[in-house]
Amino acid sequence: MKALLQRVSGARVEVEGEIVGSIDQGLLVLVGVEPQDTQASADKLLHKLLNYRVFSDAEGKMNLSVGAVGGGLLLVSQFTLAADTSSGLRPSFSSAAPPEQGEVLFDYLLQQARLKHPQVASGRFGANMQVHLVNDGPVTFLLQV
Fold first, then answer.
1. How far apart, in whole angstroms, are the C-alpha atoms of residue 115 and residue 112?
2. Which residues contact 76 (CB under 8 A, 6 or more apart)?
3. pLDDT confidence of 123, banded at 50, 70, 90?
4. Catalytic pick from 79, 106, 112, 125?
């Protein structure tokens, strides 16, 4: 699984003009699923997301997790993260999981996140979404598990 993690002061996802998920301070995470991914991959990614220290402590060092700052987690499926961009001028999506597998694993990740973190929101799998965010820093990391 690949995840583009962004520290935000606020973020929301809209589908057809309706807000389907939003958070204040926290992490916006774009999630890409690949064919070899499993529930174990999702568990490992979630552990990293909840414990990755990207928020500043009193000394201004990135030393605090999303839970430590009471932040939200906004998960958004994004199959384009799994694209093969190694050649040519057009991305290939042959390295992305089939939609059925992607949806199952994204839903599993979302369910597990809701069990382990008090503030979890999401986009809508497979929908044309508009993602609005204020990237704080900017701070952005690509995580691969």
1. 5
2. 13, 21, 28, 29, 30, 31, 122, 123, 129, 131
3. very high
4. 79
pLDDT tens digit sequence for 15-49: 999 999 999 999 999 999 999 999 999 999 999 99
3-state secondary structure of 36: coil
Q: Is 79 a catalytic residue?
A: yes
pLDDT, tens digit (0-9, with 9 covering 90-100), for 75-120: 999 999 999 999 999 999 989 999 999 999 999 999 999 999 999 9
Catalytic residue of the set 39, 80, 85, 130: 80
- The HSE-up count of residue 127 (CA atoms within 13 Å, CB side) is 17
Given the residues 6, 25, 55, 78, the one annotated as active site: 78
Q: Is 80 a catalytic residue?
A: yes
